[in-house]
């Protein structure tokens, strides 16, 4: 089987919806011994429903810290963070965990699948935490697996799947709760080039279906799949631009 690069295809930009993420003057400080590290120095960022945003930045830029705030894995030292109209800036850990499970679908570089569970059981996991009945969660997990093209791999365990298939299972797990945002951290980092392109094409499909996607990456070509790129440097947003130009797609021939 050979692969070829298709002609440039115009990006489809969906109309923006309401603000789903609102960050105002957010700072984050860490104490390291006697030194205080200013990871974020007053970040302002709005993300709208139906947007596809890439966050980029070199090591030490504050990119990972911002991702942790957006993902409700941490809270700002000062400033405001609202997710889908809820002020999460000062929430306690148990409240943050509940918001994460309800509002955010995570996709990680390392897949984070339970090795002894089937694909379907991995996808069901967030619904178990939400108290969804067995019958409903199995139905929703099956639908999520079908949505990522893995209807024939539901009962396979992670070690019986390719890297790309495992990442699709992780994406299905992120989708199963119908979250406000999908937060993807270097989702192609452990994949070969062709498989990485397949995964980015899947994100494209999810975006066109109305999902809000925030992609954290250090790879420029991966970021170019988004419709907007936010670049951080030294704890501040250096640039925030919409991307309208064409992009390349790769497929099998």
TrEMBL record:
Stated name of the protein: ABC transporter-related protein
Organism: Chloroherpeton thalassium (strain ATCC 35110 / GB-78)
Keywords: ATP-binding, Nucleotide-binding, Transport
Domain annotation ABC transporter: ranges: 21-253
Family per record: Belongs to the ABC transporter superfamily. Macrolide exporter (TC 3.A.1.122) family.
GO cellular component terms given for this protein: membrane protein complex; plasma membrane
Any single Pfam family the record assigns to this protein: ABC_tran
Source superkingdom: Bacteria
GO terms assigned for molecular function: ATP binding; ATP hydrolysis activity; transmembrane transporter activity
């Amino acid at each position: 089987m050979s692969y070829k690069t298709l002609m440039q295809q115009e990006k489809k930009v969906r109309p923006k919806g309401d603000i789903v993420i609102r960050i105002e003057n957010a700072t984050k400080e860490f104490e390291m011994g006697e030194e205080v590290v200013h990871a974020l120095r007053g970040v302002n960022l709005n993300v709208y429903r139906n947007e596809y945003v890439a966050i980029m930045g070199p090591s030490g830029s504050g990119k990972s810290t911002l991702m942790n705030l957006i993902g409700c894995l941490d809270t700002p030292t000062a400033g405001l963070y609202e997710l889908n109209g809820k002020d999460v800036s000062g929430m306690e850990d148990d409240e943050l965990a509940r918001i994460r499970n309800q509002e955010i679908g995570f996709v990680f570089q390392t897949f984070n699948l339970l090795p002894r569970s089937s694909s379907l059981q991995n996808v069901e996991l967030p619904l178990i935490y939400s108290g969804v009945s067995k019958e409903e969660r199995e139905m929703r997990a099956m639908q999520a697996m079908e949505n990522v093209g893995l209807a024939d791999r539901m009962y396979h365990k992670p070690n019986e799947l390719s890297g790309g298939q495992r990442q699709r299972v992780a994406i299905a797990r992120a989708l199963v709760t119908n979250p406000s945002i999908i937060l993807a951290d270097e989702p192609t980092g452990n994949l070969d080039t062709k498989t990485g392109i397949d995964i980015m094409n899947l994100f494209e499909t999810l975006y066109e279906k109305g999902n809000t996607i925030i992609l954290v990456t250090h790879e420029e070509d991966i970021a170019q799949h988004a419709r907007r790129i936010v670049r951080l440097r030294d704890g501040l947003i250096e640039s925030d631009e919409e991307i309208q130009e064409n992009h390349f797609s790769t497929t099998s021939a």
